[in-house]
Design a protein that fits this description.
Shape: globular
Order of helices and strands: HEHEEHE
Number of helices: 3
Largest sheet: 2 strands, antiparallel
Number of strands: 4
Radius of gyration: 12 Å
């Protein structure tokens, strides 16, 4: 499924407009791949694949609500402004 996700999404540039709140940064080395962030995301902007120990974040789908950052027990997600 994740291969389909990666192939299907070639979306817009990840550059931020000046009016945005920033972006979410993922520290994959700290991540346990527990999927709490994925379950907390209301826009499905995060896809976690525990079997391959990978996490995908589509910034253009992310609303920067902060739910994923708050749910992460390892503090592997953070806001960057």
């Amino acid at each position: 499924m994740l291969e389909l996700f990666k192939k299907a999404y070639e979306g817009p540039s990840e550059e931020l407009l000046p009016s945005t709140r920033g972006k979410i940064i993922v520290d994959a080395d700290s991540c346990w791949f527990c999927t709490r962030c994925e379950r907390a995301c209301s826009t499905n902007a995060i896809v976690v694949d525990p079997s391959f120990r990978q996490i995908y974040l589509v910034q253009s789908e992310c609303t920067k609500c902060g739910r994923c950052v708050k749910k992460c027990p390892r503090h592997a997600l953070a806001f960057e402004r």
